[in-house]
Structure formats: C-alpha cells, structure tokens
Amino acid sequence: MTAPHYVDCPNCGEKHDTSGQYTSPANRELDRRLWAEEHLSGRCVSASAARENENATSTPEQRFNALKDRLIAAAGSPGLTSFHDGRVHMTLGEWEQLIELVAVANASPVTEKHTRDRISAALNRAADKVCALAPQDERLGDAINLVVNAGLHLLKFPDADLEAVVEANYSEDVDTVLGWVRDGQ
Q: Could you tell me which residues belong to the region Disordered (predicted)?
C-alpha cells in the first residue's frame, strides 16, 4: 500500500493527500482538479473571515457600501438600496431577490464547510488511521478503499449501489472487487 503524502494549502493550511491510495483514478483526478480550484486559487480563504476583518476596521457607512456592492452583485441591480441613520433600506424586489438567494444557498446539499474536497480529505485521513491499525491486512485495505470510493461516488449519485460504485471507480469487474472484501481474494 502506498504511504499517504500530504501537502498543505499555502492559503488555509488544510492538508491534502496526493497519494490517491484510497481513491480510483477518476476520483483522484477529480480531487486534484477540485483541490487546485479551491486551494491553489486561494478561494479556500474564508470570505467570512475576510469580511469579519474588514468589518472590524470600517465605519458603518463603509460596511454598508461593501454590503451594498455584494447585494448588487448577487441581485444584479442597484435598485433603491440606501443607507440612512445606520439603517439599510431596500425595495421589496431586492428583499425578494435576497430571500430567494438565501433559500437557494440553504437548499444546497453540500455547503462550503463540507466541500467534496474536504470530505475526500477527511475520508482519506480516516482511512489512513484505520489501515494503520492492521497494515498487513489487505482485506481491510480493500474494504477501506471501497468505502472511500463509495462515499465519494454517493455524494454525486446518492441512490447508487455498490455495483455502480465499482463500475465507476475500478477497472476490474464487480465480482472481483467485491470478492476482495467478501473473501479476501
């Protein structure tokens, strides 16, 4: 079994296993691409942390202007949003757009906190810890590998069965892969 090889994100410090020992080639490529999109691009740095820092050093009117810019970007229109005596005034249409955007964000099955990349990293770290308990047990390693691949596959296809997981993630046939776990072959 390949030893895990972790790299740290230069922006947020999150660890990423690049060995791919628990994932299929398809998942490995997807993990690599998503890691680059989120971490190498710097998008992983929490926007809310940046806003908190910004809020701590700005006046109420500066905060309003920043919020208004974000609202305009989200709603697509400056509308009649205004700032008076520390209060924000918006049109009913702007409130409706804002509420719709919040509803869509809340309905998202995978939140920013639990991106596929983070789930993959957590599954791989857990797999490392469990496999370390019995490093000579190939059957355990095969089962862990199947669990990691199944977990990542089920994120996208929640109704898939193990056969679909194997077909999507392994070059071997279904009976062979499931036999590794069933029979230790």
A: 1-25
